[in-house]
Design brief:
Layout (H helix, E strand, L loop, with lengths): L2 H13 L1 E9 L5 H11 L5 H13 L15 H6 L6 E6 L3 E7 L7 H8 L4 E7 L6 H12 L4 E7 L8 H17 L4 E6 L23 H7 L13 E2 L2 E3 L11 E5 L4 E3 L3 E5 L3 E10 L2 E3 L1 E3 L3 E6 L10 E4 L7 E10 L5 E2 L3 E6 L2 E15 L4 E4 L3 E2 L4 E12 L12 E5 L6 E7 L22
Parallel strand pairs: 1-3, 1-4, 4-5, 5-6
Antiparallel strand pairs: 2-3, 7-16, 8-9, 9-15, 10-14, 11-12, 11-16, 12-13, 12-15, 17-23, 17-25, 18-22, 19-20, 19-24, 20-21, 20-23, 24-25
């Protein structure tokens, strides 16, 4: 590519929007094949990658390239023909850039789907047209609802194996849409496809003239990206304090970090949390230059008018829309570690750039995703469990509800002994229809808080 061509390509990428999306579905529903077909038919696969897939397919006795191998990279995945870990792929079309997370289908890998969908603006849930909506389909819809994924695509796959019958698709779409809507999923789009044959993935199908909607790629390219962080209240977690104390900058004091949401402007009245001290934004430095305004997700250095105590882990927010602080956190969590999470366990809670000591005060319930029933007082959560927890922290946290901000409403629980990530948490109500319950302050013997 010439230098002019490179510049045009860079300019094109800069003007396209970014969509993060995840795929999910039961085992053998064809997730990896769909992803492979999407990459192949959108011309996003390099020649050497395609040759490697063709070679691996021939070694397995297959006459045609198995496009699922474009994402199933682990040896165990290829041997079993399943997806085990989350596979990330990056590709672009002239209209949009994409970050794709291909997540596993097995029940025991629910935590992997949580990882893949936690930052997604859209989830593609696959269903085998021969089997319809199954327990794992409902489980993945529930996880998407828990993670507040704003757009869900139901891809009814393997339509070629049911003679491209419209009634089969319509029945599955109706059942899934009703279930997902009851969970509070705001937008559901159903598309009949055959990932193996390429029907309605990138190109419209010649076998389903009864379907007049978009292909999968058309929908991915045109769905509104509703994660505009600039529309949310400003949140600036401080990552690092810059004090050069040099001859050139003897009095410079700046607070560096990435704006998690919203817009910061010079002159804004702000509050530093959890201390509650107030000041005014005196200056904003971005890429070595002073600017008057900055927005999420820019990384900037903020200078305040007053010389107040601000350190890593503090949160700078507009005074008019600053979040409250609390030491009592009620949240929905997905346990991701092999060792269980138990009542009374001492953990570290990491929220944005702040890490504090905490104790698991209670595990009121464990969620059964098959039917959304609550199993009361389970006593512990094991790997892949999703449940409600009550946590008491040693220091106040400026925590938003996850429903209001996926960035500042999420946290991790970490083992203080070895730094292992134990649990991923979402503050506030579990599903969109629920309301958060205020918890009374609690004390605990042992750790001093």
């Amino acid at each position: 590519m010439t230098s002019t061509g490179t510049e045009k390509y860079a300019e094109q990428l800069a003007t396209t929007t970014l969509l993060r999306f995840a795929t999910a579905g039961s085992v053998d529903d064809g997730k990896s094949t769909l992803v492979g077909r999407l990459l192949h038919d959108s011309k996003s696969v390099l020649t050497d990658q395609l040759e490697a897939v063709a070679h691996a397919s021939r070694n397995r006795g297959q006459e045609t390239p198995d496009l699922a191998l474009l994402t199933d990279g682990l040896r165990a995945e290829r041997e079993q023909g399943i997806t085990i870990d989350v596979a990330y792929r990056y590709f672009a079309t002239p209209r949009r850039r994409f970050i794709l997370a291909d997540t596993p289908g097995h029940v025991q890998y629910t935590r992997n789907m949580v990882t893949g969908a936690s930052t997604a603006e859209l989830a593609v849930v696959l269903v085998d047209a021969r089997n319809g909506v199954v327990e794992q389909t409902r489980r993945h819809a529930a996880v998407a609802a828990l993670l507040r994924v704003p757009h869900v695509v139901l891809a009814v796959n393997k339509m070629d194996l049911v003679a491209y019958a419209e009634p089969v698709f319509a029945a599955i779409a109706e059942e899934f849409t009703a279930y997902a809507a009851s969970l509070g999923v705001p937008e559901i789009t159903a598309i009949p496809i055959s990932a193996l044959a390429g029907d309605n993935v990138v190109e419209p199908s010649a076998h389903m003239d009864w379907y007049g909607g978009p292909t999968v790629l058309e929908h991915l390219e045109t769905v509104p990206v509703s994660h505009d962080l600039a529309d949310c209240p400003a949140r600036f977690p401080v990552q690092y304090v810059i004090r050069p104390q040099s001859a050139e900058h003897p009095d410079y004091r700046g607070y560096a970090g990435q704006i998690a949401s919203g817009v910061l402007r010079v002159g804004d009245a702000v509050t530093v949390l959890p201390s509650g001290r107030t000041s005014t934004v005196e200056g904003i430095d971005a890429l070595g230059e002073s600017v008057t305004v900055a927005w999420a997700p820019q990384s900037v250095t903020v200078r305040l008018a007053d010389d107040i105590d601000v350190s890593r882990g503090d949160l700078i927010a507009p005074t008019a829309s600053a979040p409250g602080t609390t030491q009592d956190v009620e949240a929905t969590v997905c346990h991701v570690a092999d060792r269980p999470l138990t009542v009374g366990q001492r953990v570290l809670l990491k929220h944005t750039t702040r890490t504090v000591k905490a104790i698991v005060k209670d595990i009121p319930s464990r969620l059964t995703l098959d039917d959304l029933s609550q199993h009361p007082a389970p006593g512990q959560l094991v790997a892949n469990d999703i449940g409600r927890v009550t946590i008491r922290t040693a220091e106040p946290l400026a925590l938003d509800a996850y429903a209001d901000s996926r960035r500042t409403g999420s946290f991790l629980l970490i083992d203080p002994a070895d730094g292992t990530t134990l649990t991923a948490g979402m503050a506030g109500a579990a599903f969109a229809a629920e309301s958060a319950v205020a918890l009374p302050a609690q004390d605990d013997e042992g750790w001093d808080f």
